[in-house]
Amino acid sequence: MALIRSIATLQETLDTQIAQGDLDSALHLIHRTVDQVFCEPINTAQIFGSKLLDEYCQKAGAINWRRIQNSAQPAHRNNESGNTVVYVASRLYDFGGHTPVVADIIRLGPSARSIILITGTVGATNLAAIRHRFEGLTQVSLECAPHGTFLEKLNWLQRKLLEFSPSTVWLFNHNQDSVAVAAVQPDAGYRLRYYHHGDHQLCLGVYLDYADHIDPHPMGFHNCRDHLGIQNNRYLPLTVKDHGAPPAKEARTSDAMLITCTAASRGKIEAPYFINYADVIPEMLHASGGKHIHIGPLSSMTLWRIRRAMRKLGVPDNGFVHIPYVRSVWDALHEYRVNLYITSFPYSGGRTLIEAMGAGVAVALHLHCRSRLLSSFDMAFEGAMLWRSPSELYKYVQQTDAETLRQQGKAARKKYLECYREEALAGALINWEHPLPPPPLLKGYTPDKLQQALDITNQVSFIGALHRVLCRAVRRWKSSQA
Predict the structure, then answer these.
(1) C-alpha angle 109/110/114, rounded to 5°?
(2) Is 21 helix (H, G, I), strand (E, B) or coil?
(3) In which domain, by residue range, is 465 found?
(4) Each residue's pLDDT tens digit, 124-147
(5) 189: exposed, middle or buried (C-beta count within 10 Å: 0-12, 13-18, 19+)?
């Protein structure tokens, strides 16, 4: 399919499609436009939202909403839905932080009948695999849109919203989900809450000015307020249930092996960047003489590269342990006696960082050369180990001692208790009319413009371009699995 090259052509095409009533093609074109930008790694942390695309989503959705309202039968309306909350998602996963966040907000918020509606525009959801996330929540039901066109999915979603007549609708849409953003409307009788989790890429819905715009971490909050001009956004912290600090008997002795860990899916570590996870981990193991545990799915190529580099460096095979999935990263860190958590790079993960800090584990964070949004730096505690060049990380794991790691673990645990306990989220949800104060940004982060320029130059070289083509192909394949 041809690339979209100009905004003028995009507007002209969308205007024509909407004027002709071809809403399905309009929704597809918006979806494809975001996909085109999203799938190019160089665009990461460069563009975050589009007023133009949000307006076209709303325009298409308004036309369809009026038609749905006019054709609805009174009997289809739910007259007992005053305490109903609908959560609209594009897709839910049995791994990662997205699904647990939805479950936490339902569990910790005011009691209500909760309905999760899944559009399926970016892939199918395995309901059987994710139901355990909602165990014990008796008032929760999940429904997936039937297979069909984007317009058919929009019809289904808007009919469901009309039928359930919720008091509140939460948007947890993926970046390119034009159906979800078109479905919600300002005059539909519910309060809209937009959860901005697709925050380091172009994402639809950012400029829905009638919605409560919610950012889940300090970097996103200040980016939206200070750079995107969203003045009424609010902070709703990521939180994780407290599984306890590490038992005293698990403390590392001075001569014990250093055990490090990273928890992330391939999307966070296999993106093009000037350093590569598969190159850094073997060198780090060579420097530390310890063991590294990776939790999360990795591609066969990444695993092969890690094993090959370890053999060349003489690092024992048992120095790297790959665990595709665990129920709780927090518990796994205790089980495997991890004493240093290495946040994923080039894209860090906020929820896993919180689990590591709550578990009382020292953390080492990579400072992304381009954007603090990609580092999770501002979520960590003062004094955490920061590195940009791999040599800084190698030196740290080689020289750090047991006492330093213990003190860092205590500081991490303290930060969790102060900022990321479930009580913080529960209080914010229950006292919605009293937003939490803006979270502070930490001192110490600066982008490296020269490294960024070198990184981009390498990405547009022949080999770099091939890598990006592969990355785009994988991202497009994932988004097409509807």
Answers:
(1) 80
(2) coil
(3) 450-479
(4) 887 777 777 777 777 889 999 999
(5) exposed
